[in-house]
Amino acid sequence: MSASVSEMLVRKLNLCLVLLIVVCVWVPVVMAEENSLLCTCYGEARIAEPQYNLPNCSWYKNLACCLRTEVTSVLGSMYMIHSSTKACRARLNYMMCYFCSPDQHKWYDKGKVNICSSFCNDTFEECKTTMLEDLAIGDMFKSGTEFCEANSFEIVPGKDHCFDFDPTVFSGSDRMSLCHLLVMILSLFCWVCVALF
């Protein structure tokens, strides 16, 4: 084997070693970050973790603060909605699933869900004609603020530090969990190493 070929092989091995070290250091840090998301709605006793059997709020299945029994209990005790649009149902469903969000540490404070005012106002506009029992939401409430306050949310102007609607949840796209991302990175690493040799 010539010197230039062995030098090239050593460089490739060094590159693979550096990539492996980066991945081995980065993976535990990311996994620790993912698993240390405190579920502040539940105090100090719970961290977000996978809940693959959620009957509703299933967009949180890869990392959820809620349990199956809690989802069944909370959503089973809610009023039935009638004559609503698909967009309205999506917004109301998302709003009522706040307790499953792994991001609640960003917007749950002192026993209150801080909700973005735009989420309240847009939901109210979309759901004005939706019937809850015998009354339309627009007849029961004058505004999105009044609607959200009646549901015990704390309204926050702007988009910072507040629970906001994520339309991608209902568009068919699924949020990629960090675990899936790490598997992809490790696969890419293996492919690069194989390709280099």
Detail the poorly predicted runs. Answer: 22-32, 173-183
Chain-averaged pLDDT = 78
Helix count equals: 7
Q: Which percent bin holds the helix content?
A: 40-55%
Query: What portion of residues belong to β-strands?
Result: 5-15%
Q: Report on the biggest sheet.
A: 3 strands, antiparallel
Element-level helix/strand string:
HHEHEEHEEHHEH
Shape, per Cα inertia axes: elongated
Strand elements, count: 6
- Going by helix content, strand content and strand pairing, the class is mainly alpha
The radius of gyration is: 23 Å
Report the span from N to C terminus.
Answer: 15 Å
The order of strands across the largest sheet is 1-4-5
GO molecular function, one term: signaling receptor activity
Protein name: Folate receptor-like domain-containing protein
Transmembrane segments: 175-196
Keywords: Disulfide bond, Membrane, Signal, Transmembrane, Transmembrane helix
